[in-house]
C-alpha cells in the first residue's frame, strides 16, 4: 500500500477512535493490528495524543478556576443530598438555602461551561444529569413547601393567639388612657395599621410581633422562586392555593362542643385569625402567589361560615356571663382582622342580634333574683338602730324623709328589705346591659336607647310578673299586701333616680326629644293597684269567714241586749287590720275600709234574706238590729282617718232604713212617701221589704206568743196581709 494511502487509513482509524464509544471500538482496533505498518500507526497515535494533551492543558489553564468552582458546588450538592436522608430538622433547614445557588450553578454549567468544554464524554454525562438534578431540586423544594404548609396548619392557633393578644393589649392600654365607653385611642397593629382605620400601603405591613418567630416563611419564597426559574410558577400557585383552601375548610369547621366553654370559641377564632394573618403576609411579601381577589374570596366564605357557626353554637348558651365573654372575644376577633383590612361589619351586625339573646338570658336570670328576694323578704319595715345603718340603706336606695330623719334611734324605715334589694338589682341589670354595648361601635344615643328598652322589658315583663307572683302567692296575708303597697309606692317614687342613673353612665340627657322613657312608674302603679284589689278581696273573704260563724235564732221571742259573738270578733279583727294601714296612702286605707263596710252590710242583708231562712221573728230582727248598731258604732269611730262626717255610716244605710221600718212598723210612712226624694225610707227596696215581710207573716201565724191574745193576733195578721197587698200593688204599679 502506498504511503499516502497508509497515512489516510491511519487518519481514518484515529478519527474513528476519537468518535466511537469505547464499547464499539474493538473492530477498529482489530483493523489496526491486522493491518501493515503497525509501528507507524502507533507513532501517529502517540503524536495525536500529545496534541490532545496540549489542547486539554491549554483549555484547562483557561477555565481552571471556574471549572473547579463548578465541581466544588456539585460536590456540595451531592454532600448535602446525602445529609438530607439522615439529618434532623435543623440540618435540613440549613441545607435548603443551597437550592437556588445550585440551580444557578447548573444553569452556568449548561449555558456556559459545558459548551466551551467541547464534546467530551464527561461533559455529555454532566449535561444529561442536569435535568435530573433540576427535578430533584424541584421535588425537594416541594417537600419543603409541604412541610411549611403542615407547619402553618399546626401553628395557626398560636399565630392567631399572638395576633389577638397584641390587639387586646393595645385596646387595654388605650382604655386605661381614656375612660370612656365609646372612644378608644388609635392603636397600631403590626406594620403601622390602625384599628378601625383604612389599611396602609403594603410596604408598611408586617406580621404581628412574635408571630413570624413561630413559622419560617423562607421555604415558600424559595419554592416559588425555584418554580419560577423552572417555568412552573402557575403549577406552584395552583397547588398552594388548592392546599390552603383545604386547610381553610378544616379551620372553619367548629368542634361540636365549642359552645360549652369560652376556650372552645377562643381556639376557633385563633385558628381563623392565624390562617388569615399568614395569607395576608404571603399576599404582601410575594409577587402574586396570592392576590387580593383570592384572599377576599376566602374571607367572604370564612365570614359566612363563621357567622353561621356562631349563631348555631351561641343559641345553646344560657349563661349571660359566657355570652358577654363571647361578645368581647368576637369584638377582639373582628378588630384583629379589621386591622389586616378584612371587612367585619357583618360580625358587628351579628353581635347586635346576639344582644337580644343576651337580653332574654338576663331577664331569666333577674327573674330568679327577684323571686329569691320576694321569697326571702319578711314584709316588715326595716329597723335601724344607728346612723351608720341608716346611711348604708340610704346609699343603696335613694330615700329621703325629713320627718323620719328627725326621729331618734332606734327607728323603722317604712319599706322592707325588698325595696333596696330590688333597686340594687335594677342598677345591676343596667350595668349588665352597658357591658354588652361597649366596643360595638355604637353612639351614646344608641347605647342609651338600648339600655332603656332592655330596662323597660325588665320592668314591664319580669319585675311585673314577679310582683304579681308576690301578690297572688299562697298564704299571703293582709299585712304582707299592705307592705307590698308601701314597697311599690317607694319604688315608684325612685324611678326618676333610675332615669338619672342611666343618663349619667351614657352621657345622654333623659329629657331628649327621642329619649325612651322608663315604664317603672306604670309598672309599680299597676302592681300597687293589683295589691289593693287583693286587699279588698282578702278583707271580704275574711268577713265571709266570720259570717259563716253566725248562728241566729230566727224564731227568737225577743232579742238580746248585746252584739253576737261572731260580730264582736269580726269588728275586733277589722280594728286590728286597719291599724296596720297607717303607712298606706290615705285613699287606699279609706277605700279598703269603705269596701269592707259595704261588703259587710251587703252580706248581712243577704244573710237575712237567705232562702233557707223561711221564718223571721220580731225577736230575731231585734237581735239583728243590735248587731247592725255595733257595725255602725265601728263606722262612727273612724277606724281609718280621712273620712268626713258620717261618710262611712252610709255603707250601712240600706240595712238601717230596712230595720227601722220593721222595728218601728212604720209602713204608713213608707207607703205614703215611696218614690219621693225626701222619703224617710228611700233606700228600702219594696221587693226586699216584701220578702222579709213574707217571712214574718208565716211566723205570726205560728207564734204561740199570740195564742192568748187572739184578737191582737188576728189584727196583726190582717195588718201584715194588708201591707203585703199594698207592697205587691206598689211593685206592680212601678213595673208597669
From TrEMBL:
Residues 44-86, 98-164 form the Exocyst complex component EXOC6/Sec15 N-terminal domain. GO terms for biological process: Golgi to plasma membrane transport; intracellular protein transport; vesicle tethering involved in exocytosis. Residues 346-695 form the Exocyst complex subunit EXOC6/Sec15 C-terminal domain. Keywords: Exocytosis, Transport. GO terms for cellular component: exocyst; plasma membrane. Transmembrane segments: none annotated. InterPro entries: EXOC6/Sec15, EXOC6/Sec15_C, EXOC6/Sec15_C_dom1, EXOC6_Sec15_N, EXOC6PINT-1/Sec15/Tip20_C_dom2. Belongs to the SEC15 family. Component of the exocyst complex involved in the docking of exocytic vesicles with fusion sites on the plasma membrane. This is Exocyst complex component. It comes from Astyanax mexicanus. The lineage of its organism: Eukaryota, Metazoa, Chordata, Craniata, Vertebrata.
